[in-house]
Queue: 4 jobs
Job 1
Amino acid sequence: MTLQLSDFLERHRRPLAGNLPATRISADREQWLQLAAWLRESGARLLTLWGADDRDRDGCFRICAVYLLTEGVLLVEHAMKTTEATASASYPGLAAIFPVAQRMQRAVYDLLGISAEQADGSEADRRGWLRHGGWPETCFPLRRDANGSRQHPNVSAPYPFVTVEGSGVHEIAVGPVHAGTIEPGHFRFSVVGEKMLRLEARLGYTHKGVAKLFETMPQSSGHRLAARISGDTAVAFSWAYCTALESLTATVCPPRATLLRALALEHERLANHLGDLGALGNDAGFAFGLTHFSRLKEDLLRCNTVAFGARYLLDYVLPGGVAVDLPAEAPARLLGLYSELEQSVANLRSIYDEHAGLQDRFRGTGRLQQPIAEKLGALGLVARASGIACDLRVDHPWPSYDWVATKCITQSTGDVAARVQIRFDEAFESLRLCRAFLQDIPVGPIQAPVPAAAPYRLGLGVIESWRGPVLIALEAGPDGSIRRCHAHDPSWQNWPLIEYAVIGDIVPDFPLINKSFNLSYSGQDG
Amino acid sequence: MWNTLSRMWKTGLLTEPLPVLQPSLDAPSPELDHLQSQLLAVLGRALCIRHVDAGSCNGCELEIQALHNPYYNLEGAGIQFVASPRHADLLLVTGPVSVNMEEALRRTYDAVPAPKLVMAIGDCGACGGIFGASYASRGSVANVLPVNTTVTGCPPTPTAILRGILETVRPALAKA
Ligand code: SF4
């Protein structure tokens, strides 16, 4: 069977537009499942899963999965014919093979009403993931005949959490509104004394209907929405969108703009890592760390204004290039900043390393063992902290990463301490990359014209953000419109991992563990 | 320990003056003193703010967090973020109000003691922003709660947020 499958793949897969080597293949029900099992065995990871309503074109719903392989990405599509009368469809679920598919399948159902069949015939989890009662059960907003701007009254329904029974076990419910300045989500802890036995997260609170909104926008402005899927990952998402569109239209982004995008992406990584390092110190009772790292982050943001025209770059990357050219005085200012950051971060690192109280809180806390991280498909810095070497900048470098030889940074212990060390090391590596980019910055234009993409073509953009790979799958509609745009944040993969990492730790360590993952609620909720 | 102390010593004091409401008339530092003394006179304590993310993209949160860095030194100005709405004078709301957060936002508002000051920040909070109103979003905060002031920007800068806080409390303080 293995031979047949690889033969089937080789013969039928077609090239797919994108910034990474990408191919696509159509699969029937059997092939859809067999391919998934075979890909799992060959070490591929499920990057994302989405559905589409193509009934207006060929009477089908589609389910699409993108896998990350050593040679690039593979899109597997499965079409489900549906009759006008019932307008329902189902496909073989992937959760038994790729557990990470579970929540994505629930989201696909909430938006499109196509359901995943359980491999073992067991009862599927029918609890709404994105639909909390804000729209009726019978309404599937992402269907083509659904009116996305129609408002419905909120009807809240109970959400049964899985309970743990036993003597002395009680539950703690937290959220969706939290005590600090963070995003909303609900956490249900089952505890004995202080010890966490189980954690179940309920997300979806910040669902803003991004996918439906994309379909009302022209291709030329979708990047603005992409940047706002998760504000802390704005450069990565807008770049992913733009590179998907550019690959669809055979647009060549000018070399200067490509390099500036990479510079902006590394600044985004630095800003987040500096912020997290401060917050992690603070959550472990060392407010000094927050003071000093937040100051360094502010220095960086102020330099962003000089170099890119804004503190946060939600409107920097646009189709065909970037919005603002690097002013002549910026490189000197940036090089000064990098030296200051390098010295200060090194100094703070030695302070962190030598602080016994801090290390005591970091070490062994929130441990995510490598086998679980592998099994559940961890991505990004969380995966690297558990010993999994994966970084698209290293594995599939796209321009301008193709000439800087990024170092893949890993740690083996998978605890908070490992996630702290990863951030330190990656900050230094980012500074090295920024310097390399600045040294070789080509002169020339910063924008190229982007024509409208031919209808029904699909392009992929995959960018390694500070958190992990983000993906945009963009399908063009007629006359420069967007037919379907799916965005994926690595938080989908990493949220379920926190539930494993906390087991056996105490409740007061949860904020620290959560911060060490620092996942996006908005990016997951869409 | 020596390392820590030496870093503190070398870094020194970074706090900048508060933004001025009418830049041409006020000098920066009287503004700060003035606000502090007003807050103290009226409240007898710090101004307490409760932040609620009603569905933002998390960009606005980043700039609220920046207010705590030593350059802005919010707490030094007598402004404090609190963990419970019951301790808050002012509700600082970000994001368009997602339908999934509507109820939680209303409940948080109900828990704030009178007089409830509400400030909606970011283009989303102020007018719905890029998300607007849809099956999943109620649009601006004012569509759900009575709002005193708004601060636009995507995200608004810390200085703009700080100025907005001053503008929100100033009339309330004057009345009191
Ligand atoms: S105003 Fe901008 S930064 Fe703030 S929540 Fe809206 S999109 Fe995000």
Job 2
Amino acid sequence: MSAAENQMETQAHHEKVNYINVRTTLLSWLVTLDHKRIGILYLLTVSFFFLIGGLAASLVRMELVSPKGDLLESDTYNKMFTTHGVMMIFFFLIPSIPAVFGNFLLPLMIGARDVAFPRLNLLSWYMVAGGGLLALAALIMGGVDTGWTFYTPYSSSFAKTQVALTVVGIFIAGFGSIFTGINFLVTIHKMRAPGMTWFRLPLFVWAMYATSLIMVLGTPVVAITLLLVAVERLLGLGIFDPARGGDPILFQHLFWFYSHPAVYIMILPSMGVVSEVISAFSKRRIFAYHFVAFSSLAIAIIGFLVWGHHMFSTGQSMYLGVVFSFITFLVAVPSAIKVFNWLTTLYKGRIELTAPMMYGLGFIGLFTIGGVTGLHLAAMATNVHLTDTYFVVAHFHYVMVGGAIMGYMAALHFWWPKMTGRMYPESWAKLSAMIIFIGFNVTFMPQFILGYMGMPRRYHSYNEEWQVLNVLSTAGSSVMGLGYILPLGYLLWSLKYGKIAPQNPWNARGLEWEIVDAIPHPHNFETIPIVTQEAYDYEHWHPNKPAQQPVIVGGGKS
Amino acid sequence: MWNFPLVPPTAAEEALHISWLYWVITGMAIFFVVAVCAAALVLVVRYRASNENVNRDNPPESDMRLEMTWTLMPLVLALVIFFWAAKLYADIYTPRDDALEIIAIGKQWMWHVQHSNGVRENNELHIPVGRPIKVTVISQDVIHAFSLPAFRVKRDAVPGRYNSMVFTPTKTGKFHLLCTEYCGTKHSEMIGSVYVMEPDDYQKWLESGGKGTDSSSAPMSLEDQGKQIFTQLGCNTCHGAAGAAVRCPPLEGIYEKPIELANGQKVIADAEYMRESILNPAAKIVKGYDNLMPAYQGVASEDQIIKIIAYIKSLKDAKPAEASK
Ligand SMILES: [Cu+2]
Ligand SMILES: [Cu+2]
């Protein structure tokens, strides 16, 4: 019996051992190999980077209240939108759902005690957190002003800011996400409990699988590309700078080869969450499970073949452009399939409008808007007019904030009881879901109009006729900001004062809800469960005698 | 402040076509969004847990016909939009021979525009109404983008490559000229105006050297300026010089003709090729000659190169004055 288990025994006299109270020192968290604890570490890390990215965004929006660039210097403004993009994309959105909830849930959902490589898992966290800190250091040492896209030759030969340091930070975090991807793929292939066949997997697991594929196949390309930018800066090699014999468009090809699929790294996990949430609060099996599962894979694969739609105006060959445009239209189809299947899941359901469900439905609405405005951008002629304007900004915020972050908030509320053992205050949560939804639309709807009128993105000052819509947008963003601060408050509050969570507060199906413990045991399951049912088997569920006896043996010893 | 537009002016033929496309897609988009939101709303209300008065028997698990419907329906719509948009895209990005040629050079942080008769202007673009205009853009430093929202066209100004676009203004007036590719500190100040004028006014404007007045200070044409630069930079000491020390190919009559290279490849001697031949001659050696031409990288500016090319172009129909030995 190990020392750790000894300690568990002593504590168990007072309360049930769970992954949180099993050891409490800071060190025990920093060297933990428990996937659930690593998930919590990620939660803290990405929340921190979200805060920084959010602060930068609010400075940007404040500057844009007036058409003259009078609040910030141009250079400061440029650094702020770059900080916003870099922090939000590389250090919040990409790790958010996969690293936080993927880590916490994947082994629980498939009936495993941990991920395949727990040490690698911890290393990944150090890489993401360390990479983020490097990027933060770059910010403190003067900042970066290239935009999160790091277009060459500006980034490689002209910018006088901390490009190299930032890029190295992203490189390191990138390898963290590659390792996470490998870890998840192996875990899903090798560690499913007996009886957990592929088509009994919860759809969140399918989404994680597709996401991991993209991480493993795509991230190395962008990591090396960004490193080449650093090399060109530091050693003066001619890779992307035409004045030194390089090709600036090559950078864009390499960058978007990853960064378009990266959009799916951000959105697929949210789609997985939404599938879970919609099913749990409709008490229905997801309609057409197979279609939803395979559409994730289809998106991941087709998503690798569309990167050129970012480059219709760069002078890439017209034939190439036509192919990219065509495939981009194709990728719209699996996304549409998902939306229709979620809607049909509601049909004849037993719908409870809890906060996570509100976020989930919000996701469907906002993601649909993000998706259909993608058609304007997939269409080559309208793309030329709209590219690099606020239309694009609005479009990808609908996908990445309206989609990815709504999914993240849904997940946070849905699994909060399992993660912390406490219930969040429901009415506060509903209120903030509503505030975020309204604030979000007021922020970004005007930007579609601004974009169609031609207002370019990344503009520190702008033409006066665009002011009214910009003021509206900033007003909306303050409302949305409030909507994000509220959860920070009430979730922290709930840790101490929230109602103690029952073992399965939502009467949801899925192994993570069916373990006997309210808060999972460090080893998740005492004996590995044997799965005999489909995912989302709500057929034997009745509204009046819910709380089906836990069918799965948990790990609690006391 | 309360007088603000919600759509840009539509001041070119292409702009009209593209805005049609835009509104058709927008119409479809609104239809889908409203349908999805309405469906969600109705279902959530009808099947709320507290409502026991609905039939929940035999909820469907999946339905192949439904799946096919909502796979094929978006697919077909998508294909229609795809073809339509690709056609309009080809319209604006395929060079046309009947177009008035204008060259714009982007540099941090201004637009430098060259008219063929040698008139130059900064952060302004004067063009006549009613005829196709071809704007060729290139950058001298980082990537910029030449954006004209009223005409619904833009083109990236990429260092090292000539990109072009064509549009046909239909309205006179003053419109925005913007840089839409982030290019550093003063990206948002890299803006200006487009003036679309009646053809006569434009002609007067050109002849007055871009001053709009009748002062007869007409500038030298692009090709004449190019000829001067050709001498200044010493090109003429080899090309076309009788008894030059170096044997080199004649430049007369080569413009847009196929050139055979030393490595056996054939290339068309277009502007892109000329530019490379001047800046980095070693990249492509003409068959039968040696790599003896000095590289003008860092010596000849984009502006000068454009003029030299205009000069070489003017020799399109000329015969080599005297075969170089
Ligand atoms: Cu993309
Ligand atoms: Cu610019």
Job 3
Amino acid sequence: MSQEVLSISGLRATVEGKEILKGVDLQVAQGEIHALMGPNGSGKSTLAYTLMGHPKYVVTGGSVTFGGEDLLPLTADARARLGLFLCFQYPTAIPGVSTVNFLRAALRAQGKEMPAREFLNRLSTEMKELKIDESFRSRYINDGFSGGEKKRMEILQLAMLRPKLAILDETDSGLDVDALRTVADGVMRLCGPDMGVLVITHYPRILEHLHPDRVHVLHDGRVVTSGGADLARQIEREGYEPILGTAVAATA
Amino acid sequence: MAIQAKELTKDYQFGFSDIDVSVFRTAKGLSPEVVASISQHKDEPEWMLKFRLKALDHFRKRPMPTWGADLSGLDFENIYYYVKPVEEMSRSWDDVPDSIKQTFDRLGIPQAERQFLAGVSAQYDSEVVYHSIREDLEKQGVLFSDCDTGLREHEELFRKYFGTVIPPNDNKFAALNSAVWSGGSFVYVPKGVKVDIPLQAYFRINSDNMGQFERTLIIADEGSSVHYIEGCTAPNYSSDSLHSAVVELIAHKGAKIRYTTIQNWSDNVYNLVTKRAIANENATVEWIDGNLGSKVTMKYPSVYLMGEGAHAEVMSAAFAGNGQHQDAGSKAIHVAPNTTSNIVSRSISKGTGRTSYRGHIKVLPKAHNVKVSVRCDALLLDEESRSDTYPYMDIDNPDVTIGHEASVSKVGEDQIFYLTSRGITEQDATALIVNGFFEPFVKELPMEYAVELNRLLALSMEGAIG
Ligand SMILES: Nc1ncnc2c1ncn2[C@@H]1O[C@H](COP(=O)(O)OP(=O)(O)OP(=O)(O)O)[C@@H](O)[C@H]1O
Ligand SMILES: [Mg+2]
């Protein structure tokens, strides 16, 4: 058996009393790239939030281990310190907290603090790679950022924090062609044996850059089918209906 | 930065109380005899004694204000109104008693900074014990001393302005201060002189049941400019204390005064302060006012815009923890045409803490082309926290532009989640948001004060958890 960094089995979760995840099973091995697809409202973001530990999402069954540790009893900050990272579909603005201060606080919290000069150099380098203007250093995090700028800022945080596993929730949505390439290159540069990726997306284009090892389809709170990169192309061509039809038939 | 400051101060204690080195104190409570003995002890001229006694009269006649915070816990008879710690004014740092130096050490004023400062006027109990003026200030003709010395050495100048901005019958607490005042700073900046280093004073209460009634008078003559800074921390007491200061500023034609305060009284202190400025033609007055701690604070720095082209800037920040009430705000009285005022207030309530913004904008009939901008934002950290806004406007001239914006927000679950998802603990996440909320205020502070404020905030965040 390969080294699993994330192992989800039978995960059930509710939000506002409504069951959204109805028994999710998913394994991601160390350093692998997985894609999670599925129709709108199937529970992809809910899974991402539940894994990250958002207090609104209540786990009602199943288990999740991360790097061999039981993830579920931990608060979000403890999960992050274990090496889990979420690129938000809709990043939150925090007026008054500058990008620089935020990143330093996060690095310090994760025990990855470095001398100020090194920190600033690294920040500069990563910002150049992601084509983020220097002025964003002192801007308040996500405050007044455009959709695309927010997405790039998420990847910047990823680059600075270097987690074990990054969940990218529709990081490719709303990006222009060039920005998509920049972001995808950024992610590709970071992933490798030390960092795996679970990318949530509706479009195969980002997957052409990322070359996922596995593609999973979530439907109505369950992973209904999994396959190789071809599965994404098939979905692009034919939509979800044929897959869901057979998958639903198979589980019936 | 916030987190770093917090680590620095994890075991930093503001609640210490030093050995009492007081040598003279009046009897507890208030009477003409107590007032006379203060005046006599200071060897004051007759007019000042009369001024004090008349003020005492006003104080006794006036009812307690009922419109602001709850003052029912105040007992005027259970307070020492004057305590004198050392016999002689010290001229140099070497003469300062060791126990007092230790207090300053604990307050964390860096040595380098002390030397750099233009003059440190350190108020220990009711008397100034240490006071130095840098030579070039003296050469420029700038007067910077404690108020008692100001009265003694520059009586004519002092008398010309003292009590003119805030007369003793202005309000009950101004009357009280006028009767028993002691210490505080006296600053005079001559025509055209620009003081480029902030003048600073540190204040501290050090006796149980002791009130502190300092009096500050700053005069900036035509075309001059000065920045005065006052900051303080206070030890904890078992019984209630009263702090009631009066601050008068006079900015002459084209002059500029900035007055910066950060106050962090212990949570049993009633902090009832009257601060008022007069801005003459083309003068600018800026109040930068930060309030943490205390049991009750009532403080509304105001500016009377008396001359054409005068400008007022009031930037305040308040933090109310459990059981605390910060009733703060500001007033701008536009008497002359073409005057402008800009008021920014930020307040945070935590636990059962309560903040109130009380503002008064008045535009007189002759004051045309007035521009006013008021912006107050409140942040609530808990379900039970409370914030209220009481904006009053009396506009008697149609030719004004007034902008007024107010907001109350809660720290959002999603903001906390976003920060914690990066590994930051919930407490540190809250501290980051709180520091961020005060950012516009902190930006106005000199570096060392910004650091100190962040420290105090971090402490308040820890201490106020219910
Ligand atoms: N806070 C919430 N309150 C109520 N319902 C919620 C909440 N969060 C999610 N849901 C519901 O859960 C379901 C799954 O939502 P989720 O955001 O996980 O979908 P998704 O797969 O990410 O969709 P999309 O592709 O549109 O991003 C939806 O029906 C949604 O309305
Ligand atoms: Mg989603």
Job 4
Amino acid sequence: MARPWLVSVLCAALLAASYVPARAAGAVLVMNSNEATLSVIDLATHRELRRIPVLREPHHWALTPDGHDLLVADTGANELLLLDPSSFELRRRVPVADPYQLGFSPDGKVLVVNGLARGQVDVYEAGSYRLLKRFPLKSMPSHLAYTPDSSTVFVSLQGTDRLAAIDLRRMEVLWTAEVGKNPAGVLWLNGRVLVANMGSDDVAVVNPADGRVERRIHTGKGAHQLFLSPDGKLLYVNNRLDVNSVTVLDPASLNLLRTYRLPGGPDDIAFAPDGKLWFTLRFVNKVAVLDPASGQYDIIGVGRSPHGIFLNPRAAVPAAVASR
Amino acid sequence: MTAPFDTLAGWLQEHALLPLLYALGLMQWEDISFGWALFAVYGAAQVVLTFAICMPLEHWRPVERWPDARAVTVDILYTFFSRVGLLPLVTFVLFYQAQVALNGFLADQGWVPPTLERLFPFLLGRPVLTFCLYVVILDFSDYWRHRLSHVFGWWYALHALHHAQRQMTFWSDDRNHLLDEIIAFAWFTAVALLIGIPPMQFPLLVLLLRLLESLSHANVRLSFGWIGERLLVSPRFHRAHHGTTASGRQSVNYGAILPWWDMLFRTADFSPTYVPTGDPTAEEALATGSYAAQQWAGLRRMLRIRGAPLNDVTLRTQVGTPEGGGRYNLKQV
Ligand SMILES: [Zn+2]
Ligand SMILES: [Zn+2]
């Protein structure tokens, strides 16, 4: 650059004028569950920009239906952090008992919070975060998925090999049914509930009416999480123990399309606009950015035991950091 | 600085624990097992570092020299049992369901355990300071747990196992009765319900604290000087607690990390002496028995003493012991 001093002055002026960032290049927020921090990574350069301290043990996140707040669940601190999804500035803390996995209903009316360590599923009113109903469900409620009409939420009960269906209109448990060993990830797909069975190597296709398992799709040992690509064309399954730790299925037929070898315990996935997939690697304290076409991946160091990952292509990268 | 430990814990989780849990059909514990892997790796690091620091010190200026130090061996076992994760595993297996029930019950009552940061917002964004404050509060709580374990006869019967060692070394810190450990665990749980759990992102600070606790048992003539003795618990300070004349109901220097509580509650003894350790009232099995023999002897002693006032029983058993003689009260401040 010909006149670096000019750039510096401009950056300083920009910073002094306001907190409006120089570019909205996009950023990724990673929940380092065993380090009580959130890593902010530049989407474009893959550089870690900063680490935000939280209180104890951040695991998962949910975006409010209006996109206004990003909720990060700090399980060990018993609180939800409401962040600006663009700057990741903290707006508010809401005390909530043991929030592990959480999600808003598609109609935006309720927030369901799974308390894995206390065997309870809580239904909160969105916005006010007032507890509407608590369901004691044994045991270890871990993941959840809604029907598109928001009438029902399905919760995997990791400790008792069951899936529970909760009617959110009448606020009662419809059924619980055995679906496989240690069910974890849950996904609504084409009128069926898919459940990844971590204690075995399959995804169960469950009838939402009664919990009957209609089919089992073999993926890999320790099937853990399910993610549908944003275009709905690919279904990704992360397998905890398999060398082929990522399985890709065709969402319509559930036929195997391909696998990827991604060591280090791939857990959650975020999809980038450029088609790349961002995985948290639980056991190696890293994030992998996978190019699905080539199978090549880039590695970014983050904090201890990264779990949830939130990607915002419009997130602000602060000017000072971006220019550094 | 922690990267090698974290890498090792991750490796242990991915290549040993997960395949084991999978084979045993226990994959619901996969998240918890990673926490355990971290605990085990950092625990092993604690043992190695403690050994590297305390061993030379004990050679340099030992308080006592023993021609036969066989009684130390069992303390090494206690250390590994406790630091490398077997003891936490036992308490976890025994109490997981109880904790779930308690957490669920409290959530039903509307009780959400706060954090110190929520109680004192100036701590927000200051995790190291928060951690230090937790250490102070937990050390205070532990002072009272320890002190009460010397008050109740049945409780001291268990704690006597810790005091029975006449060949006290840096390995002796974890020498405790299993029931005593369980009480300590319940005690900590109760405090955590009031102020939350401490931030856990500082394993190296935890490591230093555990090092200090081990060091305080070391067989070394080491005092931290007039000021140092009043800031942190030294080998000399804790040795006074283990003194043959101070064992039992009325001892001194109950603090584990900070001597402040002993100063505040008038149980501190700063006299510059290095006393012989042990509990003359304890039966021989508690001192030199195997792990199982010690645990059994402690349990038997508790059942025998339960109900009877401590002084009656212990004074009776003290008669005829060479070092006994009911001199305990001398050390009471
Ligand atoms: Zn004691
Ligand atoms: Zn001691």
